[in-house]
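Protein 1 of 2
SEQ + STRUCT:
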Amino acid sequence: MANWGCDVTTNCGERGPKLLIIEPFYGGSHKEHISCLIEGLIRNGIGYTLVTLSPKKWHWRARCSALMLRDKIPEISTEEALFCSSILNLPELLGLRPDLCQLRKVVYFHENQSIYPVKQVKERDVQYAYNEITTSLAADLVLFNSNFNRTSFLENINKIIRLFPDNRPKGIREQIEDKSKVLYYPMKYPVSTTDKVPQNSILHIVWPHRWEFDKGPEDFFDVILELKRLDCKFHLSVLGQVCADVPLVFHKATEELQEEIVHFGYLKSKDEYFEVLRACDVVVSTAKHEFFGVSTLEATYCGCLPLVPNNLVYPEIYPEECLYKSLNDLCRTLQKFCSEPKTVRELRRRLCLDFSKYCSKNLIPEYINVLAVNE
């Protein structure tokens, strides 16, 4: 049975808890994000109260977490600010808990729902995007994990408003834009990285993403199976979080790629995960919905050459030589790399990417500054 419990943790710091952190989906990158922030708070002697729900049933968390959390959030004592992800319906929570209105309210967007890929437009549930708009209006500061995330959200606000049958409010985008900024996701890179240069005679490809539709697994395996049809020699590791409804293509892959698969499935140990990444040559993304891409950046840091779409957030982070224009383009590049693995290693050695821009150690002081709890 799923654990729908709520956890509350308090650290009083030097002057009592100053920050109320609320995360309705406490798992994966959301959990790691909060962990990085908390480490920074503790280093600075800043107390906090952390209220979380387990990472189950995302859609229900987005719809109902405010009511679920209403009675779980402790009474405000010394807190000065509230920090939450955009999954939380903030105005709904403030209506249920008006005592929270006095806090400085900061919302963090890991993603936005206004451009979530759907097979047909009529399938899009605009309620999620609408909730993100009202949450942004209720906040004092709105943070995004990339310029792409911020821009795509702001550009789609008026599209959502135009769906209203009448009484369409004006100036909503401008109100949110004026109090929004980009603050990158804080990466915790592996402590020890070797300047490894894999000596594999066969190219090792890794796909380390969440096993869901929006990460484009069908496209990825179409390319990989085409490589096999072309008699390309390669090894394959498929990592990432396994979700409840795994797309059928993963089952097909285990049957048709038995000879190529080295690792297949989620690795609970982060150290083991990084070790696998260090043994790989190329990390591939075929995502349809990506606003930062933690796993791709982790793999790149561990020595993989990234091959990523020429859209979404990727041009913001990766140089042009890492971007592919189409799946055919991706397939041709991988085909070439399969025949010349040494080329990949030389390209990765020459790759110019400033990892420090996304490093937790460099970013957390800015988080504490914008939260205004270090005074």
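Protein 2 of 2
SEQ + STRUCT:
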Amino acid sequence: MKERIEALEPEKNLIVARVIGGDLMKEFKNFFLTIQAIPKQRGPGSVVKCHLKYERIDKKVADPEDILVLFVNASRDMDKMLSSEF
């Protein structure tokens, strides 16, 4: 997968990437991934939100649930690593 950063807002802990190449583009005309880390109001850490915005090439193309599963698994792994004591 090849992507390009469309927006980067450090003050909002936000990044928007646009997929511009790879297998994903065989099924989607446009595909954007937005990730934002929002600091928790109480206690340490952040809540990470992921938003997918896409346009299918054909109505028969399924929703990209695989991408969400990948993101959830990666988030869990990062959480385990960041919350472990060094």
